[in-house]
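Purpose: get a first structural picture of the assembly so the mutagenesis plan has something to point at.
Setup: three entries, given in the order below. No constraints added.
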Amino acid sequence: MKISEDFFLKDIISIDQFDKRSVEKVFATAAKIKKTPVKKLLKILSGKVIALLFFEPSTRTFSSHSAAAKRLGAQTIEHQNPMQTSSVVKGETIEDTMKIIEQYSDAIVIRHPMIGTAEKAANVVDIPVINAGDGAGEHPTQALLDAFTIYERFGTLDNLTGLFCGDFRYGRALRSLLKLFSMYKNNTFYLLSPEELRLTEEDFRLYKNKGLNLIEINSEKEIPSYCHFWYWTRIQKERFKADKSKKILMPILSPELLEKKGNKKMIVMHVLPRIDEVDKRIDKDPRCIFLTTQAKNGMFIRMALFSLILGDRR
Amino acid sequence: MKISEDFFLKDIISIDQFDKRSVEKVFATAAKIKKTPVKKLLKILSGKVIALLFFEPSTRTFSSHSAAAKRLGAQTIEHQNPMQTSSVVKGETIEDTMKIIEQYSDAIVIRHPMIGTAEKAANVVDIPVINAGDGAGEHPTQALLDAFTIYERFGTLDNLTGLFCGDFRYGRALRSLLKLFSMYKNNTFYLLSPEELRLTEEDFRLYKNKGLNLIEINSEKEIPSYCHFWYWTRIQKERFKADKSKKILMPILSPELLEKKGNKKMIVMHVLPRIDEVDKRIDKDPRCIFLTTQAKNGMFIRMALFSLILGDRR
Amino acid sequence: MKISEDFFLKDIISIDQFDKRSVEKVFATAAKIKKTPVKKLLKILSGKVIALLFFEPSTRTFSSHSAAAKRLGAQTIEHQNPMQTSSVVKGETIEDTMKIIEQYSDAIVIRHPMIGTAEKAANVVDIPVINAGDGAGEHPTQALLDAFTIYERFGTLDNLTGLFCGDFRYGRALRSLLKLFSMYKNNTFYLLSPEELRLTEEDFRLYKNKGLNLIEINSEKEIPSYCHFWYWTRIQKERFKADKSKKILMPILSPELLEKKGNKKMIVMHVLPRIDEVDKRIDKDPRCIFLTTQAKNGMFIRMALFSLILGDRR
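Result (structure tokens, whole complex):
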């Protein structure tokens, strides 16, 4: 369901539900929460219970939702591995599990390896459902936190130049982010990835038609020096079953590359976790904000969503 | 230990501890909690810590206890799989684990695959222990929530006609419920199950002698049309090692059966999880309350028990 | 970093950071917390979020930290098995995991099977890190709770005679405790262990040089009757890969041994879990406090540390 001004009791399944007004309402709420004293926040969701159902491993997304709920004074029911610890092992359907959890909680955050599961869940329950990643599908809260991090730095989501590097085929976070950006004007994004992991032609045309100026490049040499941000991703090995005889060459984010192709005002982001595609000597560079500001904004965006969806309406 | 009026700091191990007075005190407390504004409830167990030790997979029972504690303002210590994550892997006995957890908490909720474990636990610790299912033993809080759901609908637990369908040999919830009903008068229950899963002769006689009018039937055709409730269970495959060459025929709960043998005032319950013994087209029928009212009452009954056992005495 | 008077925002990695003043500040704080009404404690860490990252199975240490945080009004983010449920399975380094969790929380408690991990963690994050056991390394909070239990009983940590029995080679708790005691004067400790599990010569000399009067004995017969405390440990089978043809003979703590070699004023402690090295008939003896006072002090010591590290400075 489309969200415009009113988030109250709405599901968050896809970036498709958002328009510029709703995106910016999330950002304004997150910015306000960042400035609010910690103890004042505890009243916002006092008495609420939020269920976190994570059918896939997660540190970041699980922990940031858990912390977000608790920092607003809510409590959580947590299942970190329901494949092993819940009635799912007895053969229960996801729909039944959701209906039951609905009876105990005020909202459900779900991560699941199968595309479409969050929407399926939202269709069977009346309380709000937040999609925390559904397989190769979407990851809307990640897109919001990434966009918020850029917005916070540059004050706009229009007229930007960005470099995206990595896996555009299986990376759900990236796809959700491109969708979000296609609501905005005059953005040029350079895409650098191994050939096997490029956007599908269909996706490429889709985002093009929505107004994104996408430029595929073939090597680090073609990166323009005036990017506002670089956005790196790992190769989702767990989803990608490549011909193993073929080595996938992934561009490496290194201090040397940043020296050669970067600029002073830019920021460097990563969807995390990172494996070998980042040279860790780069961590000390203050432009690299993936382990700090970007991660912390993950918590604030989730706090913003929780408070908009479940907080008392004034 | 028998409970009559006073639940304070008592264990809840078996339905045998209850009499009509204590059962109805739980029901009255649950009914009152259902009507109390959410934020008012948070004071009842503020400052209390309840340990949830689940040595067996569970969604419903785990989550409803977790939510019940938190909705009363308590906090929890949670072990969802202590076989893998705790000192049990180092060879510690259940008695030692319980003694240790006792030092940190105000009450312990335990689920365990071995019959008698909850009682064993209660014998070694001084804080209250709640049995959340001990193997093929008992499941007293499930029986209370089931009976409460019937009581809430019909205002009584006397003079009822019910159909029980499924597994009477390994289903602990059902056995606890029959025990509870045998405190009440003039109840007639039709029992429909595959031959291999009928009540043992011993159990059959036991409940008969306690005053339950039990009638075993052999097919759906014999279901009387005037039941107050139908109560379905799944076959506990994980406990039941049948001759696999023999197929167990389980009666299916379907819209057609409900049309043919049901009536307007009845309710349809299920102990959940359900597998193949329910035709899901039935879910929309408002008489089917297993995914809604019955499940939600699970949380309220646990809230009632927690508040009676741990709440401040006025 | 050395702690002397001021714990605020400090890491707790090793007993080496402590001096007598800081040890006794922890004890005084724990003693005060023990006497404070439960509801009054909830304000101390209200609004704080503490992450519990347990990369190794634990009942006691995990649960006591969880309860300690919650009894002070804090909330927790819990990962009981991050090897299976977090981004660690995707190949993320411990440093990255820590940096991310830092963004969401006010302190991190970490247990990890590899020596040095807690320190490594503390080096990469700015929030306080508490070492809850790092492989065969240290277990400073266990040493503090053990010493507090002795101090509480005898009013001093000087001029004591103790018997240590068990595994001095792989037992991290014991090593941390000997370090703590070496700040104090005139203590004589008898050490009884299978030959393979004795202190290394290096360790033996180290503690000797620090002023501990250590006496290795070869059998139960040599235990002096005037010990203030006995301190038993299990053999850490999971760390110890012995020649399996050789049986390790471990002294058994039994009522008979206590009758023969004990005295009325002593206390009997154990680091737990216990396996076969304790004859359970001894549990009823009030001098055995490992399942009661010693365990409970574990929670109070962690409450003291949390409140000193994170509580508002008055």
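Chain B has two domains: 15-138+296-310, 140-294.
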